[in-house]
What does this fold into?
Amino acid sequence: MPTPADPDFDDPLLGPWLKGYPTAAEPLRRSQLKRQGWCVLDGQLPLPLAVLKQSALTHNLAWMQAFAAERGLALAPHGKTTMSPQLFRRQLDAGAWGITFASVFQLRLGVLAGVQRALIANQVQQAADLAGLARLLAQTAGLRVAFLVDSVAQLRQIEAWRATQRQAPVFEVLLELGVAGGRTGVRDHADALALARALRSSPAVRLVGVECYEGLGVTGDSAADAASSHALMDRLQTLALAADAEGLFEDDEVIVSAGGSALFDLVAARMKPALSRPVRGLLRSGCYVTHDHGHYRRLVHTLAQRCGCADELQPALEVWTSVQSVPEPGLALLTGGRRDLSFDIELPRPLALARAGQVHTLPDDGRWRIRGLNDQHAHLRFDDVSDLQPQVGDLVALGISHPCTTFDKWHWMPVVDDDYRVLDAVTMHF
Amino acid sequence: MPTPADPDFDDPLLGPWLKGYPTAAEPLRRSQLKRQGWCVLDGQLPLPLAVLKQSALTHNLAWMQAFAAERGLALAPHGKTTMSPQLFRRQLDAGAWGITFASVFQLRLGVLAGVQRALIANQVQQAADLAGLARLLAQTAGLRVAFLVDSVAQLRQIEAWRATQRQAPVFEVLLELGVAGGRTGVRDHADALALARALRSSPAVRLVGVECYEGLGVTGDSAADAASSHALMDRLQTLALAADAEGLFEDDEVIVSAGGSALFDLVAARMKPALSRPVRGLLRSGCYVTHDHGHYRRLVHTLAQRCGCADELQPALEVWTSVQSVPEPGLALLTGGRRDLSFDIELPRPLALARAGQVHTLPDDGRWRIRGLNDQHAHLRFDDVSDLQPQVGDLVALGISHPCTTFDKWHWMPVVDDDYRVLDAVTMHF
It folds into this structure.
């Protein structure tokens, strides 16, 4: 975590207080890392260790930026995925308009990392959060932040807080539409338009656009996913047109934002309604930066086929573990568990085994499989007929499903080349 | 995380870089916290926020210490649960013999926090970890650490690493027994005894005891749990007697360790085999310190009935959230999700609703229930017939199941009185 004593995100200090950093090694600045010659395969780094592959990261950053640019859209990738200032910087350098966050706490990290334009794709209404946002806006020249409103009750909370303040900013807000049975967001057009009017007439906020999230009920079936996301995007367009016709938007351009990491092609085609003023279409996908070996790999494969994309995103995130025990035939225990890996969508997948520096790709046919996780262990089952049998001391790479819930288990990740030599590092600040 | 710039665990610096600390507030030392007059119920702290109840913590520390003492056992509570130096200190001050860890990385935190006796209840075999452990032992006068060995292959890894070192300690080890289909640990008595002989004859290690973990297949059915844990403890006793008879233990006392957080009464009765030298029975339960509102509450209730205990452990950990949206009848969205709460055993349970500082206990009959979590949201379903309806801005307290996977989502937790006024804080360093 960045403290007043070490706020340097460009060249953070790394050391043995970070899980995965060698306990016996001296602390190093990020800029000193490459010259150490560390390699994940040679035993210098204690496992488990989550690593990012430089080649895949670089590919994904360019791929997504091109995807948005080709459709006349801008990117505000969701920063909650990584909470990593160095990755925010790479996203901005690649051309992102800004970064999206889920809370004022997350926004604070972005602002410290140099983010100038941000969405909070969430309701803000608590006094402590409104005070925090007001302070960030007051202290940061040029900072622009818009957050979501989905009820008059929330607007009244904001107004009540503002009435207690001597000075408070006028908050920029997006009106959120949602789906019955889903999450946040107004369910009905008439209610949404009534809320837009209430926002327009409130001195506490400025309505600068509309927002929705299409990814909650994703099925992977293109027809079903297209039907549900088109229906939502049609409602968003209808609302934007109606609010525009009544002059309810209060900025020179109107933000229209949607886009998780699974169906962003489906919403991308419907993010530019013909309004009386320019529209800024903002995609918020966050998981693209590292992609994964599970849930998003399957969904983005479908997406790429749907779009006729020449190539796809590449999985950049792997968690390396060590075989600590092979206590019975067909079972190996790996040093890595619920504290180290995503398990909220599905269990990790064994990708490769390394012995004496040699990497052996594992079959993706179920013969090697993770059957369970404890806090600190993974249970690897392997068939007796496999040619390769895990031994104590072997290294096993695991592919994950859902990057968000692996990132939040680490404070740093080395960035490695395709031979797993450490080139660089990023830090995470959840 | 403790950095070289702020290693003060007694009086750590807290500030807005910590999730749950007010973004608009100045950093404070732990010792300055109480005089701020903060209260979770009054909106000064942004939610979600995990809090610890002082009264329950104090009760649990004393309860567990008395439980062990009454049975002639010592405590080495598992530090992986909390990874909190201030809680380690309270456990040691309450009378714990030492602290248990799952890795050398975790041990390092304990050593910095003043732990002098430790178990690593896990295999250590990687070069980076052996080097880290050797360094901690060399740098820390009086530090005693024993880790687990469950295979000759692991012993050979340790010997191979040692052969590359000019100087290396003789590592103290416990021989681990395990259960077929379970996790680590030797499955068979003859193999275990052969390993004990190999350990005795190796110059790399000293065999100082035996260990097992009975909690993997816990069912909650007393008869079934007693049968499986008695069978395992009988094997552990048989092994200890055989190794003792052959003179394989290499210290003045023999450590016999078992005990997770669910069945510790069942193992406690069988941890003192009659050996030729004194036996140190070490219980490793970790979750008792905060207990929970789910899995462990049910199991420890059964345990307390089995023991005829006059009272039980008390849940000390709650996660407070805010209602950010009530977008349709019967559904409220809370500010707290997979990034803030345990969900690996079961979903959290709504405990209380607070409005305008008044706390209303919620019915525990399913009328209020968490039906799903996203990364940053909890979906609260409530029946229309409830007298109390959640509104935007209400606070909702959630009880969790499995403390380990809530602790690892926070860097600090306030310690509160029964009215949720902030008295103190602890920090976590995963």
About this structure: Chain B touches chain A through 85 residues (CB under 8 Å). Residues 195 and 295 of chain B are 36 Å apart (CA to CA). The longest strand of chain B covers residues 317-328.
